[in-house]
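pinging the channel bc i need a second pair of eyes. not urgent but kinda urgent?? the chain im working w is below, pasted from the shared doc
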Amino acid sequence: MADPVGYLANAERLLSDAECLHTAGRSRSASTLIVVALEQMGEFVEALTRQTYPDADVHMGIFGAKANAHAKRQDALAGHVMNYAFGAYAGRIMAKRLAVDGVAEENVVEYMLRTQPHHFTEEEQALQGSCPDIEAAQRLMHYVRSNMLKDLREFGLYENNNRTFSTDEITHMLELASRVRGILRRSWVTPEPFGLVGVNIPEGASPGGL
């Protein structure tokens, strides 16, 4: 297995090249590099997770059991970013509650057990909707699940495509890729993938509280 950091170095190089092409007016060629950069980030997530947790389940299963390497990397990245974005937000909310209630550090576990189950208030849900990391995570997940990344990669590679992308759309994808790279600088890996209703949580089931 390659060093996980090497995958990130590849991703950064590809994003830099994509930015140069985009600035030079060659957005279509840049589109493929954007997707490959994101997939290198996904390979980073796969490698780092398995390095940290050798028996970890890295993929949500968005594309089923027969997904190819491209799809698996997109799956790993989208799930990882969702895990971090929602987990970090929940952590900030819990830290705020502990501070407001004046809970001493040595009493945190007792407080957590006593106040179960933990759910967001209406105000916390509203703030969640404006969290930049969560917005980026949800956009990435949408693009992965709708096959937009696959279409974007092929748009840059082939002349005749069922789907085309405007320069503005490619600009937004480049911005998103840069934001995702920023999230990876702050995130942590987990031994289990993100749980999403309709993917790895049955329809109608509750994904849980805070």
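so The mean pLDDT is 89. and DSSP finds eight helices and no strands in the chain. — does that match what u expected or am i reading it wrong
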